[in-house]
Design brief:
mainly alpha, about 425 residues
């Protein structure tokens, strides 16, 4: 496995995500305002959130078993079969609880947008599965290419239809929808094309068993990531969702490196086991240092950047961003260490941390949002992120006998090593 090359792919993707995401959000914000941006956020969040609720952790199983050399073709068949079954169950459950779903989206959520969101659930679920299959097969080039194509499609669409032609909200929604549906279909096809046959097959029971250890933690993690916006909407309205979305987008600037290396680390640990421990500690230390530096930079220039890029009416997004930054620094460590625990076959430890964080996050959101508006949501999220990262660090230390300094405190040698790694990535052309 070429860790440098795959990290390069993902880092390029994350940087492109940042740039295109910022430009796209700026255009949407300036042409449709906070209300329109809030509607688009909710339309796209609903299928992502609901599909995560019923994914049963199969996406993690796809990476884990593919990385360990099990038959790719068998995995694709089993995973897609489970995806279709879960999709049908999702739609049934949404129909049963349609009044509750409509209630969550009632501010700015017209009936037609709710229907569209529900229809996207199977595509999001199968896209999630097929993307993870590609990662488990170490087809990071195909994976990143599809993600980039989605970003480019969305960016070109909003420039043409919203900015140049001045079309309204409906066009904005459909641009976002198609930028997800098209690469989802292509990803499914490629995961089948790249799959290889092998005598070593993972049974449905094994896939579900490993996946369930991950799934209940994923449910809690998804709640920690997105529940804040679903609570903000009925309490404060879709305009507040739009403002808070910018706060989150800005805060994510500080964790792109951590996200890229942790995404490659999972299949690496699944393949190498505890031999990847030293690399994990190095990446954790480096991620914390980089996110601290990035957060400090955002604190200094974020006020001006938000007003310049998104407009004066999004200035209230700055204060919640500040409250998010401490939690984002902690999450940069948690992202790396959690991949090691999952890779050595103990994803249940990450799940415990996510559930405990969610149990703190929900009452904190309900208490702090009415008192401090979207800043309250940011404070609650930071508390949850910090608790989650702390518990993951505890389990990591217990499983590896490593003290906190081994995975938290960067050294001068780390700086030199990371600089060398960065230079090698810049010199290397993807695919070489």
């Amino acid at each position: 496995m070429d860790f440098k090359r795959h990290s390069t792919y993902l880092f390029m993707l994350r940087m492109m995500t940042l740039v295109s995401g910022a430009v796209t959000s700026m255009i949407v914000a300036r042409t449709l305002g906070p209300e329109g941006k809030g509607v688009i956020d909710l339309v796209m969040l609903l299928p992502q959130f609901v599909s995560s609720l019923g994914s049963m952790g199969v996406q993690a199983s796809a990476i884990y078993f593919a990385g360990r050399g099990f038959s790719h073709r068998n995995l694709v068949q089993t995973v897609f079969g489970l995806g279709l079954a879960f999709s049908a169950l999702h739609i049934l459950l949404v129909w049963i609880f349609k009044d509750e779903v409509a209630g969550v989206m009632r501010k700015g959520g017209e009936h037609k947008w709710v229907i569209l969101s529900v229809a996207m659930i199977p595509f999001y679920l199968l896209w999630k599965y097929s993307d993870c299959l590609l990662q488990g097969m170490f087809r990071f080039g195909a994976y990143t290419s599809l993600q980039m194509a989605s970003l480019i499609f969305r960016l070109v669409g909003v420039i043409l239809f919203l900015l140049a032609l001045g079309f309204g909200l409906a066009y904005g929604v459909w641009i976002y929808v198609l930028s997800a549906l098209i690469p989802a279909v292509v990803s499914m096809v490629l995961s089948w094309v790249f799959s290889k046959r092998s005598e070593k097959k993972a049974s449905t029971k094994e896939i579900l068993k490993y996946g369930f250890q991950v799934h209940w933690g994923n449910l809690a993690q998804r709640g920690n990531l997105e529940l804040d916006r679903f609570i903000i909407n009925p309490l404060l309205g879709t305009a507040a969702v739009g403002l808070y979305g910018i706060s989150v987008l800005m805060g994510q600037l500080a964790v792109q490196v951590s996200g890229a290396v942790s995404q490659v680390l999972f299949p690496k640990v699944a393949k190498e086991g505890k031999d990847a421990l030293d690399d994990t500690c190095f990446l954790s230390r480096s991620s914390i240092a980089i996110s601290v530096a990035g957060s400090a930079g955002l604190a200094l220039v974020g006020w001006y950047l938000i007003r310049w890029v998104f407009g004066e009416e999004f200035a209230p997004s700055y204060k919640p961003m500040l409250w998010l930054l401490p939690g984002i620094v902690m999450s940069s460590m948690g992202m790396v260490l959690s991949q090691y625990l999952a890779g050595i076959g103990k994803p249940n430890l990450n799940s415990i941390a996510s559930v405990i964080a969610l149990l703190v996050n929900i009452p904190a959101l309900l208490f702090l949002i009415p008192k401090y508006d979207i800043s309250g949501a940011a404070i609650a999220t930071t508390i949850a992120y910090t608790i989650q990262a702390g518990i993951i660090a505890f389990y990591f230390a217990r499983e590896t006998s490593k003290g906190p300094s081994a995975f938290m405190l960067a050294t001068p040698a780390d700086v030199a090593r990371f600089w060398q790694l960065g230079m090698s990535l810049l010199k290397r052309r993807p695919g070489k």
